[in-house]
Amino acid sequence: MAEQITMPRLSDTMEEGTVVKWHKNVGDKVSEGDVLADIETDKAIQEFESEFDGVLLYQGVKEGQSAPVDAVLAVIGEKGEKFSVGEPAENKTEQKPEEKPAEAPAAAKAQPTSEIPAGVSVVTMPRLSDTMEEGTVAKWHKKIGDQIAEGDILADIETDKAVQEFESEDEGTLLYIGAEEGSSMPVEAILAIIGPKGTDVSGIVAGFGKTEKPKEEAAKPTEEKKAEPANNQETKAETATAGGRIFASPLAKKLAEEKGIDLSQVKGSGDGGRIVKKDIENYTPSEKSAAASAAPSAVFNFKAGEDRTIPNSQMRKVIAKRLGESKFTAPHYYLNVEIDMENCIDSRNKIKAADPESKISYNDIVVKACAMALRKHPQVNSSWTDQQIIIHGNINIGVAVAVDDGLLVPVINNSDFKTLSEISAEVRDLAGRARERKINANEMEGSTFTVSNLGMFGIESFTSIINQPNSCILSVGAIIEKPVVKNGEIAVGHTMKLSLACDHRTVDGATGAKFLQTLRTYLENPVTMLI
Question: In CATH, what is the architecture of 228-311?
């Protein structure tokens, strides 16, 4: 029987591979251990060995071409053996001109363009942010059989940045749900199908390569689970963990933390034993586990000598990926200055005296000063691409905000045209909603420069990783009271340290230095921002 070989995942960050060289051609005999091809990943070029004996019947990717992980790479079988692959049809004809092309499997034949009946709409997992790769259904607002009108909220979708309501653009009956509450799926996977009542959508689901069972079928194992003894904690632990790691949805983790439930004692009903929201809501601890789960936070209450695992959230995964890409692709360098803040402090005090309700912070003043300095030094307000450097016409400053599970960066658009009061109000609104995970994805997109401030934690100075596609990020430290030299004498002063991280591909050292000089002028003499 012919064996289908797919593009292997040769590193934990690999999403696609490029065939640098084929070591075997169609018709060649292949033995287990033979090198089939050299595969280039995001990290290195590796030899890929065959695990099968036979004849190479098909090559799915040509030399120099790329394909996603799990795409068909090759087929090995007996000489002359008929076989079928899902893609690509044109390659099958080229590789076997003497044979009649084999019939495609049902999943490949049921292409959406030909299998969707009139009036039926397939709703896929939307890409709600530029960094989103998969989403989690936090809550369904509709169930199968419900009538849907355009504009109705179908579900709450949790991305790597926020939880957002997802509205329907179609009308009809909800015929299919592709993910249970608390379950995740990649962008563009089938989220739901809407159409005339009674329409058979099984072919559509198959056509999209869907492996999950419809909601009605998925409910059966849950019913069987209820018959299990409630105190079977050994079974629960085995189902919910793998290699010491606990698999749970972000919503389930949050609920477990709030209720003080030890996730290792919960049996998951999701795919592969993954713990979802309803598992936490229905969980009843046994006497043995009750004491262990009585702590206010099962995830973060550690005992001496005890290792605990915390599943990576969507946000944490994206932070790790994006910052890793930035650090290892953009050649960072750092410029540091110390600012005399006496005049800035005096200016802020005068603003508060004139308007006691004013909530303008030093960070707001820094954002405004950065915006005006960027207008004078547009090269700093840029992005790198392989083909060109983009000098952005708008100045949109991202303000890094710490949240429970990581970092979000709301964006103040057209910062140079806004007053201090407008910037202050907008930062407070966006930061507050970001901490509550109620901010919209589009409010965190389009930044051209980023400000990160740890001064409120007493940090005097630090360096940040550039928030790509920005070229620079400014790290802001605390205002420190210390002895300074003024007019040849030692006096008490207030200073603040700034560190500018620059991408050397777009911003040269002199360019970054001139930007900091202008920024220093604005902060040390805020009145100059009015000129």
Answer: Irregular (4.10)
143-181 pLDDT, tens digit each = 999 999 888 889 988 877 677 888 888 899 999 998 888
DSSP letters for 82-130: ----SS-HHHHHHH-TTSPPPPPPHHHH--HHHHPPTT-EEEEPP--ST
Class of 316-530 in CATH: alpha beta
Contact between 441 and 430 under an 8 Å Cβ cutoff? The reply is no
Per-domain residue ranges for the chain? Answer: 3-104, 112-215, 228-311, 316-530
> Which tokens hold the place of 342?
């006496």
For this structure, is 504 an active site residue?
yes
Q: 212 with 218: CB under 8 angstroms?
A: yes
The mean pLDDT value for 8-28 works out to: 84
- Residue 235, classed as helix, strand or coil, is helix
Residue 214 in contact with residue 180, Cβ under 8 Å?
no
Cis peptide bond prior to 483, omega within 30° of 0:
no
Domain 3-104 and domain 112-215, same fold? Reply is yes
Residue with the larger pLDDT of the pair 97 and 44: 44
Tell me if 68 sits within 8 A of 16, measured CB to CB.
yes
Topology adopted by domain 3-104: OB fold (Dihydrolipoamide Acetyltransferase, E2P) (2.40.50)
Res. 20: pLDDT tops 60: yes
CATH topology for 112-215 is OB fold (Dihydrolipoamide Acetyltransferase, E2P) (2.40.50)
Residue 177 · residue 155 · CB < 8 Å: no
> What pLDDT, on the 0 to 100 scale, is given for residue 287?
43
Share of the chain above pLDDT 90, in %: 42
Distance CA 308, CA 245 (A): 9
CA geometry: angle 511, 515, 519, nearest 5 deg: 170
Does residue 139 contact residue 213 with C-beta atoms inside 8 Å? no
309 DSSP 8-state letter: -
Angle between helix 509-524 and helix 342-354 axes, rounded to 10 deg = 50
Helices (H) and strands (E) in the chain, counts: 14, 28
The single-letter code of the amino acid at 347 is S
Residue 262's identity, in one-letter code, is D
Residue type, 140: W
pLDDT tens-digit readout, 414-443: 999 999 999 999 999 999 988 887 888 789
In the annotation, is 508 catalytic?
A: yes
